[in-house]
Each structure stands twice: as structure tokens, then as C-alpha cells.
Amino acid sequence: MKRMMRRIFLTVLLLTAGASGLFAADDFLPRLERALLRLGFRERETSLLMTAAQERNWEAVEPDFADLAALSLTVCERVRTETQAREQVELMYNLAAMNGEMQAFGFTRREIARIALNASRDVATRLRLNAGAGNDVGRGDMIRDRIRAQLCEEGLAAQEAQIMERIRARVRQNAPPQRGHGLH
Fold first, then answer.
1. Where are the domains of the chain?
2. In this predicted model, what pLDDT tens digit does every residue of 118-142 receive, in sequence order?
């Protein structure tokens, strides 16, 4: 057990110190690992997540997304198994794709963070329910569907706010001039 803990510690130390030759200092995965540890993830959890994450291609993901990806995992169940790690990495991967799309559509970082956290919370609940039923089929589709649902909800709320603002502007434009209430 001590040997395993030493290996994990050494791996974490090498990656956070930038001494690993596998990644450049500003790549997504090392930044993700630092963010996970900073947010209080245990070394074992971080190790499982990083192992699962290395199976994906993160080249197109902005390194700045690492903080939001780690934050989105804080609403998920703690990682105890490789399967849970793969599920959470799949969630992060889909959130990363969503992040790029949302930036292209002009969403603010705050809106993206809110949607990512809400989608993560929703996905975590559904994964927990599916795990109890032993249903792993369509997990990736379910994750994408939940993210799309959050995007639609956010988009509808934004459209509603824009419509209401336009209505208020029209009302102000067409309102009769304010007359004084004093006696003349």
C-alpha cells in the first residue's frame, strides 16, 4: 500500500512540477490534475480520473477549461472505481465539446459554468439511478442529451429575457409623456 501511495505521489509531483515529458506545461491534462487536487480530490480519485482521461484526445480542448472541468466533477459522486472514473471523464469530454460550441455562439464564461454545473449535477443523478438498475447502455448519448437539455433551457431563458426587454423598450417608447401631478 505504501508503495502504491508513493507512486501516486511521485506521479502527481512530476506532473504538477512540469517535469513530465508527456505534456507541455500548458496542456489540458496537467492543469486538470492540478485543479482536481486544488479542489480537494483525493490522490486516488485524481489518479483514477487521470488514467481514464489519458484514453481520450484532449488536443482540441483549451487548457483554461481544466478549472471548469474539475469544478463540474465536484457535483458528481466521488470516484471509487475505474468505471466511475471513465463515466466522469466522458462527462468532462462532452462538456469540453459543449464549451467550444457555446463560446462560438457567444455565451459568457459565467453562463457556460452555470450550464456545465447544472448538466453535471443532472448527469450525476442519472448515472447514479442507472447504476442501481445496472444500465450502462447509451451512457454517452444520455450525457449529450442532458447537456443539450441544459443548453436549451439556458437558450430559452436568454430568449425570454431578450423578448421581455424588447417589450419593455417598446412600452417605454410608446408610453405617453409623463405629466406632472402638480396643480397648474
1. 14-170
2. 888 888 888 778 766 665 556 677 7
